[in-house]
């Protein structure tokens, strides 16, 4: 098993933890941003993290790994490969998270859901619902990063490799705004290296 320090280093060494002034989807501002694809672009790093999921759930009798698109597809693939089982993904169809492409989870199938970074848990919760609606039994959730500040409760055994406490601010109270640091919207343009 990897230690928390080792996992933290895996994120920081590849530049996934960015420092600056970021506009989040919620409208809040933050001085730090976790760019998951800085990690997921490296197969070796990704594989090392998925090995943690595979090890932590090795006695759970998992039969299928499911991840919500987009990051969850990569994690589900690699975790499934390591566990020697099938991996599939959910994606949005008309706004609703669903199993498409002929993916099937038979009733009673023991499922592990994997996801990258969770703040409110919306996507992962919808992914669990999509699996449960077919009769699948979600017995565990593996997360790369839980940044819910301890608020996350998915109702099943959840293993988070990292817990990140990243402060967020209203624009009116944002210290970076006060210092006139350039505001960046992650995903919309080139991020600082
Ligand atoms: Zn700001």
CATH topology, which one?
Answer: Rossmann fold
Topology as a string of helices (H) and strands (E)? HEEHHEHEEEHEEEH
Bound small molecules, deduplicated: zinc ion
Poorly predicted tracts of residues: none
Shape: globular
Number of strands: 9
| CATH secondary-structure class | Alpha Beta
* Spatial strand order of the main sheet: 5-4-3-6-7-8
Rg, Cα atoms, Å = 17 Å
Q: What is the CATH architecture annotation?
A: 3-Layer(aba) Sandwich
Main sheet, how many strands, which sense, barrel?
Answer: 6 strands, mixed
**What's the end-to-end separation, in Å?**
30 Å
Number of domains: 1
Binned strand content: 25-35%
- Rounded mean pLDDT is 93
Structure classification: alpha/beta
- Total number of helices: 6
Give the oligomeric state of the chains in this entry, treating copies of one chain as homo and distinct chains as hetero: single chain
Q: In percent, how helical is the residue content?
A: 25-40%
């Amino acid at each position: 098993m990897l230690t928390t320090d080792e996992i933290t280093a895996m994120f920081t060494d590849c530049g996934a933890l960015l420092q600056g002034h970021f506009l989040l989807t919620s409208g809040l501002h933050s001085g730090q941003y976790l760019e998951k694809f800085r990690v997921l672009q490296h197969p070796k790093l990704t594989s090392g993290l998925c090995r943690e999921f595979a090890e932590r759930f090795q006695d759970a009798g998992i039969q299928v790994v499911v991840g919500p698109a987009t990051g969850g597809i990569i994690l589900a693939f690699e975790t499934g490969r390591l566990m020697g089982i099938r991996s599939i993904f959910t994606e949005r169809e008309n706004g609703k998270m669903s199993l498409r492409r002929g993916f099937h989870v038979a009733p009673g199938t023991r499922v592990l859901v994997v996801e990258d970074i969770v703040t409110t848990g919306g996507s992962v919760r919808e992914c669990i619902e999509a699996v449960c609606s077919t009769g699948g039994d979600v017995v565990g959730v593996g997360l790369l990063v839980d940044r819910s500040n301890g608020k996350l409760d998915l109702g099943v055994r959840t293993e988070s490799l990292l817990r990140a406490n990243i402060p967020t601010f209203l624009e009116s109270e944002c210290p970076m705004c006060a210092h006139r640091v350039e505001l960046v919207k992650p995903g919309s343009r080139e991020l600082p290296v």
